[in-house]
Amino acid sequence: MATTKAQAPPEASRRWAALFFIGLGQLMIILDATVVNIALPSLQRDLGISDGDRQWIITAYTLAFGSLLLLGGRIADYTGRKRTFLIALLGFAGASALGGAASNFEMLLTARALQGAFGALLGPSALSLLTVTFTQPKDRAKAFGIWGAITAAGGAIGLLAGGALTDYLDWRWCLYVNIPIALIAAIGGYAMLAESRRAGKARFDIPGVLLVTSGLVAIVYATSQAESEGWGSMTVIGLLAAGAVLLAAFTFVESRVPQPLLPLRVIADRNRGGAYLAVGLAVIGMFGAFLFMTYHMQVVMGFSPIKTGAAFLPMTAAVLLSAGGLTTRLLPKLPPRVLIVPGMLIASSGMLWMLTLETGTTYAGGVLVAQLLLGFGAGLIMPAALNCATLGVDQDDSGIASASFNTAQQIGSSIGTALLNTIATSATMDYLASHGASPAIAKQAVVEGFATASAWAAGIIMVGALLVAALMNAPRLKQQPVTEQDTESAEPLLAHP
Question: Which CATH entry fits the domain spanning 12-204+261-487: 1.20.1250.20, 1.10.238.10, 3.30.565.10, 3.40.630.30?
Answer without folding.
Answer: 1.20.1250.20
